[in-house]
């Protein structure tokens, strides 16, 4: 393999020497420029694999060079060297397209990790799919993000670009739209793909355990801490930490999270020193985070640190043309899991689905198709097998105050009396199924016949009611 070539732009001799020695020990060739204009000329004349630039130069600043590279050589990763504590400057560089940043005094371990990650990028990957291009191929076989609608083409193209950066990304979108799937794609397509992807639902961790879960704890740090515990940050070291429903973090934890992100270090509960960590932060929520900031429920400084780049996931109603392909994939999964024959949508069923607004998005489509698969008599699902809520075209999307779709077994918007009745009916149904299984010695086919159900319907009821 040819030797990789790095351009170093800095007017401080000590920094240049440090970077040149570090690069040489990594088997890399270095070319140095001390001013902005010579650096621009070198980028035009020579081929480089990475650019490291100081933010302060005699004839300009590193941001000017980042802009120039994004225009002239967008496939060239550029990392900036900032003064200690210059978080705002570093964030601005990331917004302009910088790959990453390192603070002075330069931590050599962190610098080497940055260089390794940048050199793992595939040249030109960010231009692999541009929306609106007639030559754009069908959805890549390895992509879980299905659809050829313009919103999905734009989403995939943006993901490819964001995967080349280490900038924090805030993924916004309605419940059930696939925000975690998007986060996993950013991780999979980037230089951290071989390292851990650690998702965490911030709203599911009890407040008293949150600091320990994020940062870990030392043995004896509190009652019940009988051994050292590795936190989420350390588990994701070298990879990606995905903070889902980040709006649910309590304010005290927001302060500690901000420090961990800015310092790139964490202190376990009961620990005496900070531990450096190398993680890329991706976050998401279905709440309006700007509104939470205005209302004082979310720290503005943390918001700006997480929301360096915002990526909006389109709701399903804005890409109705993708429903047919999504439904086919979901039905294939159902038939494989339930070990049934192939399942297909009849034209009238597809028309019914495409006329629905899907406030619960892809998650709602999955639930609807699971129900339909139990009601159809053969391999073909018709419109009368599909149970759609009454929310046709033009219905307003779910608001932030709405409960998570299907989080309560389909009881959204119902009162306590309705829920109590549903619980009682479910208990009676469980009892009836259990009795039938007992009478048939556990034979599900015979039990289904006894209950007047098809085998597929019984299997669906067992799954929904959680009966083993």
Query: Counting H and I runs of at least 4 residues, what is the number of helices?
Result: 18
User: Mean of residue pLDDT?
Assistant: 86
Helix content: 40-55%
Q: Strands of the biggest beta sheet: in what spatial order?
A: 2-1-3-6-7
For the CA atoms, what is the radius of gyration? Answer: 27 Å
The structure class reads: alpha/beta
Distance between the termini: 56 Å
Q: Sheet bearing the most strands, described?
A: 5 strands, parallel
Shape: elongated
- The percentage of residues in β strands lies in 5-15%
Low-confidence stretches: 125-138, 392-414
The total strand number stands at 16
Task: Write a compact overview of the structure shown.
This protein is of the alpha/beta class and 468 residues long. It is 42% helix and 13% strand.
Describe the structure.
The protein has 468 residues and is an alpha/beta fold. It is 42% helix and 13% strand. It contains 18 helices and 16 strands. The longest helix is centred in the C-terminal third of the chain and has 24 residues, at 416-439. The model is unreliable at 125-138 and 392-414 (pLDDT under 50).
